[in-house]
Each structure stands twice: as structure tokens, then as C-alpha cells.
Write a structure and sequence with these properties.
Number of helices: 14
Largest sheet: 10 strands, mixed
Oligomer: single chain
Distance between the termini: 45 Å
Radius of gyration: 22 Å
CATH class of the largest domain: Alpha Beta
């Protein structure tokens, strides 16, 4: 991009990657504007702190005066007024992924974290390991782009004049004019591959199509590069089968080069040992819960060690790691009731979240309050898996499918059938239309010791604030403490 381009407009700016890109571009000195259909935290808060205006809704007038470049988010398609204005007036345009590559990745070591689950947390962990290692060697201080707000940084992006750029590699498509996965633009020098499962049912026909995208990513890694891959997934094994670079596996099996042993949760800490090639390497302490987070951390440790970061820096980083906004985030504790928010997009992620909460609160009544919002959860293709995942909870509350009219009837998830199946199998479940109905129904039922996991990958009509507000009204003598940190 020419250095003379100063006004860059991002259409769809409130997407996690788009908002982060906006911040990176602003750091380069460009004038940034953006638009979206609906702004909600945490990215709206991030953009507000940066002083970047969000124009709502999409409109041709948002592109007046004409910007030098428009970045079109992957949620926009033909018929969007800004897309039509760009095409009619031949305003230069590009995608988030292509601009990230051209402006920030070229000339740097590209460290990419990809997979169906765990990308955001693992990327945040790796960035914090590098930041910690920079205390000993400033060259390790990373630039990064993360699909969420990393609590250690208070941001989802960072730009430094150093060699390493850590980026979350999303398998979702790039733009209406580029249907390839975004991560194919990032040309990894090293890759973490966490899981490969069927997801994004709106753009991938089946699991084979998902695997093809990951195989193409693996095919971009140079012979001098490296892959750190989860060892307990046949899908992952299939995707890395023809890699021409070094491959190291991580997990719980005795065959894993990076093996987790003696995992336990005690006194607010998760602890485990890592064996490297069968030899004890280090012990890790982490203020998070869940087997999936131990896996994420081990993957980050393995890649960092392979890039020359000391075990001491890795261990120190995890001891101070705080996680990511909207990942098992404790939003409030009121009258002994814990309200926890988690980003939920897939049955496997829901299962692991609920399992993690069980490990922390083994004696509590666990509520799962789910908004089927992701393009996968809104469809019935994984309904059986969803039912099994939700059975981890004692009480289940489902909201109506988000914008269900946009899903063809033949493909649509029917939440009443999910609720029926759960009740028939002994898990108390109910279907309530929206956040208002849910808050009104469950507030009188909640009791001290209950844990409420609110699961959605969107705003969920502000339920994260509404439920605590109603609980404070019900229990006015409670300290009504606002949650912080992790459960």
C-alpha cells in the first residue's frame, strides 16, 4: 500500500480481527474510520478507547468523503450499501487478511495459531510468553493480532519494530470476493494446530472441506519451519500428514513429544508437568481451569521453546497469565451466585467450558444459558453433539436461534427438540425466547452456590449486564461484587 494513503475505512470494523487491524493501522499514522451494523463490547470499547468512530448502520454516506482504501469485512456481501458504493465508484478495496499480510507480516517471522478451538487463548498465551521473554532479550517483544482482548495487554493487538508477529489464524473465509480461508494469507514460519472439527457450516459443506483448508495452510509452511500439533485427533494427523517441515505433537499420550502429566486443579491453580521427548522438562502453574487450557498452554510452550525462548521465561509467563475477555470470564458474584461469560460457538467448546467449571465448582448447581448464535450452532447438523455437551450442566436454558429466519428451514436448529431431548434424558431444560425472558425466569430460581455460564459468541441482548442487575435488585444486602479474573 502506498505511503500516501492516509484515510482507511473498515466496513465491518467491530469484528475482532477488523478492530485489531484498525488499531494497528492507526499506530502507523493512518486516519481510520469504520462502520458496522451493531457495535457491542469488547471491540466497541476498544475502538472507543482508540478514538476511532463507528458509523451505524452501513450506508453509502459513510464513504463520504471517499477514503483512499476500504477494507471490506467478511460479513459483508453484495447488496450492502458500502460494498455497492465501493464497486460503483471504483474505490480501492481489500480484505483484512490481505492487508495484514501486506502491511505487517511481510519481512517478519509469522507465527500462526490455527484450529477449530482454542486459537484465541493459545495466541494470547504465546504473545505473553514472548512479552515475558523480552525482559531478557528485547528482540522477543512481539507484534500480534488476536481475535479477542488479551487481559495481560488490555488489547487485541500490538506493533513493535521486532522480528516476530504472532497472529490468530482463522479458517473462516476472507471476503465476498475471496472465499479462501483468511489464514492462507499469513504464510506461517511456524504453526500451532490445535483441533480440526467440522465448523462454519455456512461456508464449509462438510468435514472434508474443512480439512482441505487446513491442509492448504500446512502446505504453505517452508521446510525450515515447524508445526506444533495436537496428538489426539485423527483429523489433525490427516492434515499434517504431508508436511515438509519439522512436526512435534503435544497432548496426554506417551507418544507425544510434549506430554502433559499429573494435571490437577487445586487452590485456584491448575498445575501439571510437561515431559519433552519423555524427559521431565518443567512444571506449569496457571490461574485457569480446564483440560483444554492445559493443552493450549502446552502448545504455546512447545512453539516458544522451539523458537529459542527459555523454559524460565515460559514458566514465569504462565504464572502471571490472565486469559482473554469472554473466556470463562467471571462477570459477577452476588449473594453466592457466580455469573460467568464464555464465548461459545461449537458443541465441543461448550462441553469443555462446562467440564472446566465442574472442576472448579464440583459441588455447585451448574446452569448453562445458551444463545445458538454461531453459523454452526444455528444449524441442526451438530444437534446431537450439542445435546451431549449440554448434559454436563444441571440446568439448561436455551434462547431462540439468533436470526433464525436467515437459516433455511431444512437446515435450522430446532431448540425445542434439544430441550425435549435433554428433559427426556434427565437434564432439566427450558426454552425461553430472549434475554429478557431468561432473566425474568431464572433470577427467582437462583440460589447461593449456583454457577451460571452464559454462552454466546455475540452480545446476547446484554444479558451479561442484565442478569447481575436483577440479582442485585433481588439481593440488595449483598455486596453485589463485580467479578474479575477467572473462576
Amino acid at each position: 500500500m502506498s505511503a500516501s494513503l492516509r484515510h482507511i475505512h473498515l466496513s465491518g470494523i467491530c469484528g475482532t480481527a477488523m478492530a485489531s487491524l484498525a488499531g494497528l493501522l492507526q499506530l502507523q499514522g493512518h486516519r481510520i474510520t469504520g462502520s458496522d451494523s451493531a457495535a457491542y463490547p469488547p471491540m466497541s470499547d476498544l475502538l472507543g478507547a482508540l478514538g476511532i468512530p463507528i458509523l451505524e448502520p452501513y450506508a453509502e454516506s459513510n464513504l463520504e468523503p471517499s477514503p483512499d482504501l476500504v477494507v471490506i469485512g467478511n460479513a459483508l456481501s453484495r447488496g450492502n450499501p458500502e460494498v455497492e458504493r465501493v464497486l460503483d465508484d471504483r474505490i480501492p478495496f481489500t480484505s483484512m487478511a490481505a492487508l495484514l499480510r501486506d502491511e505487517f507480516l511481510q519481512g517478519r517471522t509469522s507465527l500462526v495459531i490455527a484450529g477449530t478451538h482454542g486459537k484465541t487463548t493459545t495466541t494470547s498465551m504465546l504473545a505473553w510468553i514472548y512479552q515475558t521473554a523480552a525482559r531478557e532479550n528485547p528482540a522477543f517483544e512481539p507484534s500480534f493480532l488476536i481475535g479477542g482482548v488479551a487481559e495481560n495487554f488490555g488489547s487485541s493487538f500490538q506493533l513493535r519494530p521486532t522480528p516476530n508477529f504472532i497472529v490468530e489464524g482463522d479458517e473462516y473465509d476472507t471476503a465476498f470476493f475471496d472465499k479462501g480461508a483468511k489464514f492462507l494469507h499469513y504464510f506461517p514460519d511456524a504453526l500451532i494446530l490445535t483441533h480440526v472439527e467440522f465448523d462454519h457450516a455456512d461456508i464449509y459443506a462438510d468435514l472434508d472441506a474443512v480439512k482441505t483448508a487446513f491442509k492448504r495452510l500446512v502446505n504453505l509452511i517452508p521446510r525450515r519451519g515447524a508445526i506444533v500439533a495436537f496428538d489426539a485427533s485423527d483429523n489433525v494427523t490427516d492434515c499434517i500428514a504431508h508436511a515438509l517441515c519439522r512436526v512435534e505433537r503435544y497432548g496426554f499420550s506417551e507418544q507425544a513429544q510434549w506430554r502433559i502429566r499429573n494435571l490437577r486443579y487445586e487452590n485456584g491453580l491448575m498445575r501439571w508437568e510437561i515431559l519433552r521427548d519423555g524427559v521431565p522438562w518443567t512444571g506449569i502453574e496457571l490461574r485457569m481451569a480446564g483440560e483444554h487450557n492445559a493443552l493450549n498452554a502446552t502448545a504455546a510452550a512447545a512453539l516458544a521453546a522451539g523458537q529459542g525462548i527459555s523454559v524460565e521465561s515460559i514458566r514465569t509467563a504462565f504464572a502471571a497469565f490472565k486469559s482473554v475477555k469472554r473466556r470463562l470470564e467471571l462477570r459477577a458474584q452476588i449473594a453466592g451466585i457466580s455469573v460467568i461469560e464464555d464465548f461459545a460457538h461449537h458443541p465441543t467448546a461448550i462441553r469443555e467450558t462446562l467440564r472446566a467449571l465442574r472442576s472448579v465448582y464440583p459441588q455447585s448447581r451448574l446452569w448453562a444459558v445458551l444463545e445458538p448464535r454461531s453459523n454452526t450452532l444455528r444449524r441442526k447438523i451438530l444437534a446431537t453433539d450439542l445435546i451431549e455437551s449440554l448434559r454436563q450442566a444441571d440446568r439448561v436454558v436455551l434462547a431462540d436461534v439468533y436470526q433464525q429466519h436467515r437459516i433455511p428451514e431444512a437446515e435450522r436448529l430446532h431448540p425445542e427438540e434439544v430441550v425435549r431431548a435433554l428433559n427426556e434424558n434427565g437434564t432439566h431444560a427450558q426454552l425461553l425466547a430472549n434475554a429478557d425472558a431468561i432473566v425474568a425466569a431464572i433470577t427467582p430460581q437462583l440460589a447461593s452456590g449456583d454457577v451460571v455460564a452464559i454462552l454466546s459468541n455475540g452480545g446476547f441482548d446484554g444479558i451479561y449486564e442484565r442478569l447481575p442487575a436483577h440479582l442485585r435488585e433481588r439481593f440488595p444486602d449483598s455486596d453485589g461484587g463485580k467479578g474479575s479474573g477467572r473462576p
